[in-house]
Amino acid sequence: MHPLALAVGKADEADRHLAALLDKGGIPAPVLDYCYNMLMSAAPRAIIFTNGDNDTYGTLALQTARGLRPDVLVLNLSLLSQPEVRETMHARLEDGDPLTARRRAELWDEFRRNYARDREMYSDKYLEAVAARAAAGELERPVYLALTVHHRSIDALPHPRRLEGMLWRVLPGEGEAGERPMVAAPTWSLFRDTFRLESATDLSLNWSTHRSIAQIMANYPAVLVRTADAAAKADDPETARAALRRALAIASFHEREGTVAAILEYWQDLDPDDPEL
Fold first, then answer.
1. Are 27 and 63 in contact (CB under 8 A)?
2. In what order do the strands lie in the sheet with 47-50?
3. How far is CA 252 from the centre of its chain?
4. Coil, helix or strand for 74?
5. Beta strand pairing status for 167-170 and 178-179?
6. What is the pLDDT of residues 93-152, one digit of tens each?
7. Among candidates 192, 161, 220, which has minimal Cα distance to 38?
8. DSSP for 163-202?
9. Widest CA span of the chain, in angstroms?
10. Of residues 124, 18, 131, 23, the one with CA closest to residue 81
11. Reported pTM
């Protein structure tokens, strides 16, 4: 109902649908907590590009119904590609839109002219334009991409990026495209002190019927292993071990045998004499 309400220009009604969904328990706890963790990963006044249902509606519901991180602007790439919904979203942003109406119109015309040739979606063009402004230092808002955004869209950005919490951040300044070294301490601090992770291993949820939710839970071990690697390179073995321990717990719960084996192999190489192994 949320996209439909946006499509007919009823943004306030869309908010009410999200609030009702949240109040009635219609958003599973692992999804809601994942969205909470995304919001808490972002710097003040950030822009977060999301991709699908699981990374978007819980995030918007926490903002509109619970007042969490209203400073963060959440833009769903799938909805941006739908003209009717997109216009409602832009109208609501008013002066807060990272692109001018003229620039958006240029991108839309370019998309319509060239889609048959290059198959590039309007949402990708919008993302690229916003990321370019962030990299050039033209935006006061930091720009992030959810981990659920397709890797093709992330890799196509000609700007450096860095993993921060559960988000990719587009880095300002010149530099080649690609990933920059992670700083372990801020992300580990989020995992240790801020993130809601209990629901990622919730025994009361029938995970076999929620495969898409189980899939996004795999992002936790992936980020934790990267955090451990960054901590090890910074000569912080205690943080590295703690991050690997947490990654193993989540990966084991979800029976991701390949991930578990890879974590143990990495740990063995990192600290072969660790008695915990």
1. no
2. 73-76, 47-50, 143-146, 167-170, 160-164, 178-179
3. 23
4. strand
5. unpaired
6. 766 789 988 998 999 999 989 887 777 888 999 999 999 999 999 998 999 999 999 888
7. 220
8. EETTEEEEPPSS--SEE-PPPHHHHHHIIIII---GGGG-
9. 63
10. 124
11. 0.92
